Amino acid sequence: MTRILSLGAAALAASSVIGTASAASIYAFYTGTNAGVQIGMQDPKSGDIWVNDCSSMNKGNPLFPTDTPLVLPISTPVKMGGSIAATGWWDSQKVITSVFWHSVNGTIVNAIYNCDNESGTFVRQGPEYVISETANVKNSSIHENTGLAVELLGSTAGYRVFYHDNNSKVQELFYTTSTNWNYGGIVSQDPVSTFALGTAHSSTDNITVVFPKSDKDIEVSRFNSDKSWHISTFPDTLENSPTNKTATSKIEIDSSIASNFTLPAWDGNATAMGVSIDSTFTRSVFYIGTDRLLHETANINFQWKLYPNQTSEAWPEADTANGDMAVTYNMQTSEAWIYYVSGGELVQAYRGTNGDWSNAAVISVNSVDDETASDATGKKSTGLSTGAKAGVGIGVSLGVIAVAGIAIFFFLRRRRQQAAATAAANDKEQPINLGQYQTPPEQAHYMADGSLAPPYSPQAPYDAHDPAKMAAMTPVHMMATPPPVEMEQPPMIHELPPDNYSYELPAESVEHR
Ligand SMILES: *[C@@H]1O[C@H](CO)[C@@H](O)[C@H](O)[C@H]1NC(C)=O
Ligand SMILES: *[C@@H]1O[C@H](CO)[C@@H](O)[C@H](O)[C@H]1NC(C)=O
Ligand SMILES: *[C@@H]1O[C@H](CO)[C@@H](O)[C@H](O)[C@H]1NC(C)=O
Ligand SMILES: *[C@@H]1O[C@H](CO)[C@@H](O)[C@H](O)[C@H]1NC(C)=O
Ligand SMILES: *[C@@H]1O[C@H](CO)[C@@H](O)[C@H](O)[C@H]1NC(C)=O
Ligand SMILES: *[C@@H]1O[C@H](CO)[C@@H](O)[C@H](O)[C@H]1NC(C)=O
Ligand SMILES: *[C@@H]1O[C@H](CO)[C@@H](O)[C@H](O)[C@H]1NC(C)=O
Ligand SMILES: *[C@@H]1O[C@H](CO)[C@@H](O)[C@H](O)[C@H]1NC(C)=O
Questions:
Q1: Ligand 6 centroid, distance to 160 Cα (angstroms)
Q2: Sign of CA dihedral 139, 140, 146, 150
Q3: Is 76 close to ligand 1, i.e. is its CB under 6 Å away?
Q4: What proportions of the chain, in percent to the nearest 5, are helix, strand and coil?
Q5: What is the CA(63)–ligand 8 centre distance, in A?
Q6: Burial code of 383-398, b = ≥16 C-beta within 10 A, e = fewer?
Q7: Residues 236-282: pLDDT tens digits?
């Protein structure tokens, strides 16, 4: 039966092979154990954003149908090959996602979606917000090839969105519950070599942004407790510890310090970069090199080091040199997930809690053979080549296809019910991901990292975010002078060593997660 269904689906599918895009058009974020990682990618042919089935998982991994893709409903079209970014959380019943994209008319747009757990699709809540306009950032000042990255810091601290200006410099937009969207200032005055942007945070005042500086170096700008961005590079070292106030001409490599390594297969043209942070605060930076392989560099005791290469089973070769990818992580457990296109399929590389990489899994599926165990070496149980499947499939009658459709419906429904039962059981054992340092208010919802989800969803509408309403509520002067970034907790005093001040501050005893 399964085989017949597969043939029917093959006949319906134009192609299950996923193309690759020229900008960072894949996103991934972790929502916790109930719904796992949520992913999306722009289909380079249609410009649509394809997403995973948000109410089902495939052996704990995202279920990403490609023959009949789940398309995110969008009104302001995404620029073809434009950047997308997303974050979100599990609200104890469903996944909520907040997606950002570079639109056809050059603006940055945001929309919030709730997962409909019956259909497994996302339903938009409220309008699409042109956040760059709300922040008074002109579309002409946003680079036509801008990258996009988002960090959701928490319920009051809100979002930080990173993009490139028309001089190829990384800039920030921010949203807090008391400010709406505002321009947040420059992250580094050093122009990038390509528009890959990797971001991660370990607390509201510990945000890392990485991007390509040159054919030799990666640049790191870190926002820390002194509320400014501190800039460094690796493997080479910069002169005079610059910040985001340092002029472009003053940001220079210190040629008197020899670098300890060279970045393998790096030419400064990476399409995408990703950052993960583990439970020991070690930051890893990932990219796909000119050799189409993944590469990892990590910061240990304030020094960047090359990390070992993994096997081709764990890190299969990507289809494109310097290719697109997305990284997400769970800091508490040290898990990390990387998504990219290999062999025409979307694959997932996975680092477990012990720090070891398992064999990669194929994430893209035809809706009928999604339960088929397959690994990234491309072996699937049907044993037919795609060409053979298509050839046989053409002969399959419409009647069989109709039967297949009904069977798929019941099959998917049964799996959803099983998934719901499992989720309910998990919920009993482990109510929600409680933050270690937070007293949960009534009805609070938590993100995967244990921090509070933003309050505007799902109970409260996203009104405060509505540009029209906020225009009435926000005094004009607030638009020009952004108020100080709000913190989740009472400010802590950070003692900085006066002289040998380092931009890599050691971890503190109280770390907000
Ligand atoms: C951007 O595009 C959308 C849809 O094409 C349109 O409704 C909107 O008015 C445009 N915005 C601007 C500022 O041109
Ligand atoms: C920017 O927006 C204006 C409308 O406000 C539109 O006419 C123009 O084409 C947009 N620019 C780009 C680069 O899309
Ligand atoms: C960048 O954008 C600003 C603001 O829209 C504009 O004044 C400036 O001319 C632009 N610069 C370039 C190089 O396009
Ligand atoms: C540097 O970063 C801080 C914090 O984000 C910001 O307030 C400031 O405006 C930035 N400086 C510049 C020159 O953009
Ligand atoms: C190279 O390694 C040495 C010893 O591990 C260290 O002292 C030095 O700071 C490193 N240099 C750079 C540029 O990271
Ligand atoms: C990983 O492989 C690359 C070649 O692709 C090589 O240049 C690099 O040194 C290797 N890294 C390690 C840590 O072995
Ligand atoms: C869907 O979510 C609702 C609450 O939003 C819940 O009551 C219902 O049991 C869920 N159904 C499934 C199949 O998960
Ligand atoms: C900030 O994060 C980095 C990277 O995870 C970590 O090394 C550092 O100790 C943290 N610093 C503070 C002040 O939390």
A1: 34
A2: negative
A3: yes
A4: 15, 30, 55
A5: 34
A6: ebeeeebbeebeebee
A7: 999 999 999 999 999 999 999 999 999 999 999 999 999 999 999 99
- Residue 293 Cβ contacting ligand 6 at under 6 Å: yes
Residue 308 CB less than 6 A away from ligand 6: yes
CA of 235 to the centre of ligand 5 (A): 9
β-strand partners of 200: 208
Cβ-based neighbours of 498, under 8 Å, separated by 6 or more: none
Evaluate: CB of 427 within 6 angstroms of ligand 7: no
Residue with tokens 């490609």: 66
pLDDT band at residue 24 under the 50/70/90 scheme:
confident
The DSSP code sequence of 372-385 is S--BTT---TT---
pTM for this prediction: 0.76
* Ligand 1 center from residue 106 Cα (angstroms): 9
pLDDT tens figures, 368-379: 444 443 444 333
Per-residue pLDDT of 386-432, as tens digits, reads 333 333 333 333 333 344 444 444 444 444 544 444 443 333 332 22
The answer, yes or no, to whether any atom of ligand 5 lies below 6 A from the CB of 373, is no
CA distance 269 to 495: 38
As a whole number of angstroms, the distance between CA 141 and CA 164 comes to 9
